[in-house]
Amino acid sequence: MVRLAREVLAAHPGDPLRARRALDVRCPDATPDQARAALAQASLQLRAASRFGTDADDLLWSDAGLAAASRPGCTQRRARRLLAAGVTEVVDLTCGLGLDAIGFAAAGLNVLGVERDDAIADLARRNVAQRGLDDRVTILVGSCQEAVSWEHLPRQAWFVDPARRDPGRVRADGSHIRLDDAERWSPPWSWVKAQIGVPQVLLAKAAPGIEHRLLAQSDDGDESIDTEVEWVSEDGQLLEAAPLWRRQHGAMGCVPRGVRRRAVVLGRSPIELGSGTAAAMIGQEGPAAPPEPGEVLFDPDPAIVRAGLVAELARAIGGRLVDEHLAYLVVPDPLPQSWRAAARRQWRVLWVGGYRPEAMREACVDHGIGQVDVTGRGRSLTEDRVRRDLRLRGRPHLQRRGTVITMGMGPRRSTIAVLGGIVTEA
Ligand SMILES: C[S@@+](CC[C@H](N)C(=O)[O-])C[C@H]1O[C@@H](n2cnc3c(N)ncnc32)[C@H](O)[C@@H]1O
């Protein structure tokens, strides 16, 4: 019936009444409650498909579960990290609708899922069965805060993905508000960290903006724990920070101190950049300097910025920082395909100077630019203000589009402006 409900919704987009009438015609024996439930589930599946692709439209969803579910790329990445750590079975302590559990099992891991909400656990079991993975996944109802003291709970690897939305505050569209305070997540972040070293491997998912200090062990933490955090992005959107804390048997003194950081940019040509990679170790980055006309300026992917790996990226690609406090890089030519995903946007630099609207207007006219996008860092000049200052309206012969990038540079944060032409894909 959910499949039929999806068909009628697709046939009558934006018209739920007609969809409902069409469903009643196709399922004359269904009760009003059944029809309503099928349409609600079908519309969640359509939303899931628009977010995760058609892979997701055979699963059962809830509003909150859909908002919290991990993307397939993140889940696969997580499974690979566990496999690389030699893990064969994992306890998913907050399994929700089971997206991560399904990803782990599909990668060959045995999974024990724990979920405190009975109804969600039931949907998760049906999702696991839908994927034919029920021989590898068991889902139990309970609180993970109690489950960790169950005598027979496996202790090879645990995964925790705390609920980060406020169940008590709902927006007009029905969505729940995100909680910034990690102590209000469920389970709270301090509880997650208190589990470090209890299983051999503890993997967690956190909001990507979580403070770096919250990802490190406490100063008096166990010295045999290795910490590696990954920040993951896809399509220019920063998705999560995922710390993995691993107890190294007999490795006292050999475990690197501090937190190893890695940025992972998912996509067709994925990129990984780490604070411990060879690229990060070679030499020092050259002095930072503003871009020059003819060079290519780019905006690194947010996973690289958030992981604090912009200088490492500069070394790896032979580029330079524009300013040590600004996440912009300069390279002589557009990035090659193998590094393409490291940039959110790239611009061929056409003009550079102080924020002088007349000179900038002249540069626009010289390059045939009649419309500009505006972006920048370290200096707040609104789009409206820059467009107003440029006064480019009413010049139809200027057909090209450019970008004005404003930057507050140096100790006095003086503004420089860059006029760039968007580098088109090869
Ligand atoms: C962010 S969701 C997990 C999503 C899951 N990783 C996925 O991709 O489908 C968090 C889930 O943890 C559950 N949860 C919250 N606190 C819990 C607790 N103390 N014990 C067990 N489950 C809990 C919530 O009900 C919610 O379903």
Overall description:
- By secondary structure, the protein is an alpha/beta fold.
- It folds into three domains: 2-48, no CATH class; 67-267, Vaccinia Virus protein VP39 (Rossmann fold, 3-Layer(aba) Sandwich), CATH 3.40.50; 281-422, VC0802-like (2-Layer Sandwich).
- The protein is 30% helix and 28% strand.
- The strands form three sheets. Strands 3-2-1-4-7-9-8-10-11 form a nine-stranded mixed β-sheet.
- Helix 1 packs across helix 3 (32-52).
- It is globular.
- The two termini are 46 Å apart.
- Mean pLDDT is 89; it is low at 277-284.
- The protein binds S-adenosylmethionine.
- Residues 68-70, 94-100, 114-117, 120, 143-145, 161, 163, 186-187 line the site of S-adenosylmethionine.
